[in-house]
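Memo subject: From amino acid sequence to discrete backbone structure tokens
Keywords: amino acid chain, backbone geometry, structure tokens, three-dimensional fold.
Body of memo: The sequence and its backbone structure tokens, given next.
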Amino acid sequence: MTGSGLDALRTLILDQLAPRGSLEIEGGFITSLRQERLLAEAERMLEKARAAVESSIPHELVILDLYCALAPLDAVTGATTADDILNRIFSTFCIGK
């Protein structure tokens, strides 16, 4: 509530997700325009979530922005769900007119 300890928490989360030095060692690059667009979309949503936090928006609404940031990241990494597959299939044609 007071913000105390947030910097330490951020550092701990980053160390868990990307241990210090791992990005330099493993490297990484964007291999397509599609990936670049998806990562830009994720970045926009993360910035939106940051602005919501700074504006004291309730955390229930901030989490929606975080979920919106996760979807393009899942698309880059290839993480899919059954709903994703069904949505892709049914978005290409119309059934039962």
